[in-house]
């Protein structure tokens, strides 16, 4: 006849090993998932940085044009003045890189929909306002 302690000890030992192995496997899967996510985020972060630097340079150019045309914000500036200044800037190479923007937006929309919603709310109006000028 079997005694309970003869059965319980191996069952508890096997259960403990099984739970430990399951937790270890779960942690490994989670770790690998995070590694893959990080590998995917690094190129996206680089694309974002390139595009935002381009957009920042363009915005700084617009601010400089406003300052220059208004004589230190003392005179009124016409839309024609700003448009002409932006055309000259574009000829000199200071313009928004719309291809980079489109590529990054597509990547962001495909892989990070929550971040893309924030991008559309904050950045897209800035880019679209450039077309108004």
Brief rundown of the structure:
85% of the residues lie in helices and 0% in strands. It has 133 residues and is an all-alpha fold. The longest helix has 66 residues, at 4-69.
Model description:
This protein has 133 residues and is mainly α. It contains five helices and no strands. The model has no long low-confidence stretch (mean pLDDT 83).
SS field, number of helical segments: 5
Structural class: mainly alpha
**Sequence stretches where pLDDT stays below 50 over 5 or more residues:** none
What would the principal axes of the Cα set say about the shape?
A: rod-shaped
- Spatial extent as radius of gyration: 29 Å
Tag the structure with descriptive keywords.
0% strand, rod-shaped, 133 residues, 5 helices, 85% helix, mainly alpha
Q: Any chance you could write out the topology, listing elements then pairs?
A:
Layout: H1 4-69, H2 79-92, H3 98-111, H4 113-122, H5 124-132
Helix pairs in contact: 1-2, 1-3, 3-4
């Amino acid at each position: 006849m079997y005694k309970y302690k003869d059965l319980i000890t191996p069952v508890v030992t096997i259960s403990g090993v099984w739970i430990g192995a399951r937790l270890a496997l779960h942690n490994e899967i989670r770790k690998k998932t995070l590694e893959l996510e990080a590998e995917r985020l690094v190129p996206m972060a680089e694309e974002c940085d390139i595009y935002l630097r381009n957009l920042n340079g363009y915005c700084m150019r617009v601010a400089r044009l406003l300052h220059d045309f208004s004589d230190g914000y003392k005179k009124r500036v016409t839309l024609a003045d700003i448009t002409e200044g932006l055309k000259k800037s574009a000829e000199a190479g200071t313009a928004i890189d719309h291809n980079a923007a489109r590529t990054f937006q597509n990547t962001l929309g495909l892989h990070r929909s929550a971040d893309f919603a924030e991008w559309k709310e904050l950045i897209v109006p800035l880019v679209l306002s450039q077309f108004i000028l």
